[in-house]
Design goal:
314 residues; alpha/beta; nine-stranded mixed sheet; two-stranded antiparallel ribbon
Amino acid sequence: MKKIPIIIDCDPGHDDAIALVLALSDEKLDVKAITVVGGNQPVEKTGQNTLRILAILGKQVPVAFGTSTPLLVKPYHAQVHGESGLDGPKMPEPIQKQLDISAVELLAKTVEESNEPITLVPTGTLMNIAIFLLSYPHLKSKIKQISMMGGSAVSGCSGPGDVAEFNVWVDYHASHIVFHSGIPIIMHGYDVTNKAVIPYEHNEKFREHGKVGIFVADLLDFFGKPFRGHWPGTPIHDACAIAWLIAPEIFETKKVHVAIDLDGEWTYGATVVDFTGESGQSPNAEVVFDIDRDRFEEMLHSACKTYEEKERQL
């Protein structure tokens, strides 16, 4: 089976961590590199979190740290993931170090050396990806697509009126660059990833799947705390961008034009989705509108079982 070569650009983050669990377990994917960006926390923290996640999974992948500084606005970091960016689970020390090159340099090196087009999977802010596209425009043709978690077709969680989504809003100028790059984009927006929930009463089922299953359950327990009482479960936003590559049939999508609001007083950073085509602009993204939640949860259980089987073989 021919694998899909991908580079994951992330800012772990509990849902980023589960995205890595899924990506590094599936035989359909070939994770060539992981680049780290600031977002949920500064890159020094999200980078160390990435290395510790790899230690838990028993995987070694080239990792490089990027930037925490947006192109034109001040940095902003989320609080929902705790002070470390990955509070809750007991984390081991890393078993590898980050490379001595930047995230953008690793992106360029990996893309340039690949014999086939690479899929980029950003699950955090889009600063690294935008800087890469600006710095290495000749490599754009070697990017097959971008499967990203970010934006929202309806509503949001950030900005003055909560109409923007965090990953896009933190550096909406970088997001504008990416969406207007001409590269095919699959946008897994906040409105849909909120449907990718694990019901709270299902958390304990993951503990049946060995060390990685326990890790996932601990992630769900901590990340789900703010949602209890007003949400049906813990949303695993970032893993959707990976799940689409493995099983696109569990998603419903539509090709539309997406613009980033750069100037609105109350709506800057919002992804404006042209549902009806009235703008006359050609589609620049395939926007996800629905997900089969049950199949999504089955994929996460299957991933944990894969690690459990390998754990038994050691």
